[in-house]
């Protein structure tokens, strides 16, 4: 069955060729013109569509040489530990990480005792007591990181209407991944001439639209690292971003190790298989068939 466009096209061709003495060339010309218009329209709409992509009004982050980007490289676990400290002391005032529990830190950045001590710093709702009143209890290893706000409305009310997103998976949820998060955290500038930023927003060229509801969070010396690393803005941004990569991709190291094992074992198997195949075929491949004329 012919589609609507094909029918229109055929009728146009007929019209054109009947009014012309050179029928075939004319219809050929017509079809090329028709397709030219179609292509131009498609191209035009493509251009319009791409120019409407929301992220295009932001500066693209540069590519940074992350320690863990190589095929053979694991995450920097000291950096994860420092990154947790940045999250705890700065970001956790506004951002939840509802899918990470204290037990997840064990063996990654903290020992079991350390993780338990961190959990015990927080209070969680406990059982109902004998008089029917709700109680609170100390945190345990199995508890998830506490949410800074009781609900979304409270979070928005405290942040001029903007909602601080949960950070567990944020590295995977944004274009540019680590590079974007790092650039965002270190990318606060005075707005350039002619750019007006609404009251309550901050200028950040990496954020789509350029005006973000999160004011600058990291300042040189803002925290004191327990391992003595100088807490510059870029150091803290790098550490917290590494921590967020781990939270979004906790199997990162294991995945690469398994991949490497797989490649090594499979390449051994390929070698053995090729040798075996050549050996089995060697009889057939090296035989010689001779034909003699009948005496
Ligand atoms: C004072 C509260 C506050 C603190 C502290 C804070 N943020 Fe935010 N953050 C926000 C708000 C509000 C938004 C939403 C901004 C918007 O949508 O305009 C946000 C958004 C973000 C985003 C998402 C940006 C996007 O592309 O949508 C990231 C990533 C982020 N914050 C990371 C961090 C990190 C890392 C820290 C700690 C170093 C931190 N934030 C500390 C309030 C905060």
UniProtKB/TrEMBL annotation:
Binding sites annotated in the UniProt record for heme c: 91, 94-95, 214
Superkingdom of this protein's organism: Eukaryota
UniProt keyword Transmembrane helix present: yes
A family per Pfam: Cytochrom_C1
MF terms (GO), sorted A to Z: electron transfer activity; heme binding; metal ion binding
Cell location: Mitochondrion inner membrane
Keyword Membrane part of the UniProt annotation: yes
Cofactor(s) required, per the database record: heme c
Bound cofactor: record note: Binds 1 heme c group covalently per subunit.
GO (cellular component) term, any one: mitochondrial inner membrane
Keywords: Electron transport, Heme, Iron, Membrane, Metal-binding, Mitochondrion, Mitochondrion inner membrane, Respiratory chain, Transmembrane, Transmembrane helix, Transport
Biological process according to GO: mitochondrial electron transport, ubiquinol to cytochrome c
Subunit annotation: Component of the ubiquinol-cytochrome c oxidoreductase (cytochrome b-c1 complex, complex III, CIII), a multisubunit enzyme composed of 11 subunits. The complex is composed of 3 respiratory subunits cytochrome b, cytochrome c1 and Rieske protein UQCRFS1, 2 core protein subunits UQCRC1/QCR1 and UQCRC2/QCR2, and 6 low-molecular weight protein subunits UQCRH/QCR6, UQCRB/QCR7, UQCRQ/QCR8, UQCR10/QCR9, UQCR11/QCR10 and subunit 9, the cleavage product of Rieske protein UQCRFS1.
Protein family per UniProt: Belongs to the cytochrome c family.
Record protein name field: Cytochrome c1, heme protein, mitochondrial
The organism's taxonomic lineage, starting at the top: Eukaryota, Metazoa, Porifera, Demospongiae, Heteroscleromorpha
């Amino acid at each position: 069955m012919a589609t609507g466009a094909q029918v229109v096209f055929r009728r146009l061709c007929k019209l054109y060729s009947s009014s012309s003495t050179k029928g075939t060339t004319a219809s050929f010309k017509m079809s090329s013109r028709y397709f030219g218009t179609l292509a131009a329209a498609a191209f035009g709409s493509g251009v319009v569509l791409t120019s409407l992509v929301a992220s295009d009004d932001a500066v693209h982050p540069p590519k940074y040489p992350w320690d863990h980007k190589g095929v053979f490289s694991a995450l920097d676990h000291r950096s994860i530990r420092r990154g947790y400290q940045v999250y705890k002391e700065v970001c956790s005032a506004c951002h939840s990480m509802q899918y990470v529990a204290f037990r997840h830190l064990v063996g990654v950045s903290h020992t079991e005792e350390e993780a338990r001590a961190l959990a015990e710093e927080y209070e969680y709702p406990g059982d109902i007591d004998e008089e029917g009143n709700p109680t609170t209890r100390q945190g345990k290893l199995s508890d998830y990181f506490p949410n800074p706000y009781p609900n979304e409305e409270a979070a928005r009310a405290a942040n001029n209407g903007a909602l601080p997103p949960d950070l567990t998976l944020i590295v995977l949820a944004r274009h540019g991944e680590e590079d974007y998060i790092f650039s965002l955290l270190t990318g606060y500038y005075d707005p350039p001439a002619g750019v007006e930023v609404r009251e309550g927003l901050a200028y950040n060229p990496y954020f789509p639209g350029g005006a973000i509801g999160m004011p600058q969070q990291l300042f040189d010396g803002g925290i004191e690292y327990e391992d003595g690393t100088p807490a510059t803005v870029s150091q803290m941004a790098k550490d917290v971003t590494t921590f967020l990569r781990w939270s979004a991709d906790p199997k990162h190291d294991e995945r690469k190790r398994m991949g490497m094992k797989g490649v090594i074992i499979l390449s051994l198997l390929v070698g053995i298989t090729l040798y075996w195949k050549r050996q089995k075929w060697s009889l057939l491949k090296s035989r010689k068939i001779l034909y003699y004329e009948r005496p």
